[in-house]
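quick q for whoever's on today - can somebody do inverse folding on this one?? i tried earlier but teh output was garbage lol. C-alpha cells:
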C-alpha cells in the first residue's frame, strides 16, 4: 500500500511539471468579466418609429452600430457606448444616408427594462428602456423600449 501511494504522488508530481510554470501563474477565466457594468452585448430594435417614419435599431457590440429605415431613407452608422452600472450611454455618430440626407449625431441613455435579477439576471436582459437625445433644433427627446433581436 505504501508503494501505491508513492506511485500516485510521483504521477501527480509529473503532471504538475508537465503543466509548466507559465500555466500555473496565469488565471483561467471561464466567464467573461464586465467591470464597467452590465454585460449587455447584443442588438436591439425600437418598439416604435422615431421622428416620424423612421425605424431605429442598434447593436451594442465592439464597435457599435445603428441603422435607420423608413420614409425612403436607409442609413447605417456607428455608435460608441459604455456601461456604467445599470446605465448604458451611447454616442450616435452622424451618418450619410445618400441623396444629400444624413442622420444626426445624438446621444442615447438606456437601462434594462422590467425585472433584473442581479448580475445573473443581466445575462437575461431582453429589452432596454432608452431615451434618445437629438441635437437638431426643435426636435424633442424620444423615449422608447428596445427589444433584443
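ok took a stab at it. sequence:
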Amino acid at each position: 500500500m505504501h508503494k501505491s501511494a508513492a506511485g500516485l504522488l510521483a504521477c501527480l508530481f509529473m503532471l504538475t511539471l508537465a503543466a509548466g510554470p507559465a500555466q500555473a501563474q496565469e488565471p483561467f477565466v471561464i466567464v467573461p468579466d464586465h467591470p464597467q457594468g452590465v454585460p449587455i452585448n447584443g442588438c436591439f430594435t425600437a418598439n416604435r418609429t422615431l421622428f416620424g417614419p423612421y425605424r431605429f435599431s442598434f447593436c451594442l457590440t465592439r464597435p457599435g452600430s445603428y441603422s435607420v429605415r423608413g420614409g425612403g431613407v436607409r442609413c447605417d452608422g456607428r455608435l460608441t457606448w459604455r456601461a456604467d452600472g445599470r446605465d448604458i450611454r451611447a454616442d450616435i455618430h452622424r451618418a450619410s444616408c445618400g441623396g444629400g440626407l444624413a442622420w444626426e449625431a445624438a446621444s442615447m441613455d438606456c437601462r434594462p427594462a422590467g425585472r433584473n435579477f442581479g448580475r445573473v439576471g443581466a445575462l437575461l436582459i431582453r429589452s432596454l428602456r432608452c431615451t434618445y437625445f437629438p441635437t437638431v433644433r426643435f426636435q424633442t427627446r424620444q423615449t422608447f423600449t428596445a427589444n433584443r433581436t
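fwiw The radius of gyration is 24 Å. also Residues 44-148 form one domain. so keep that in mind when u check it
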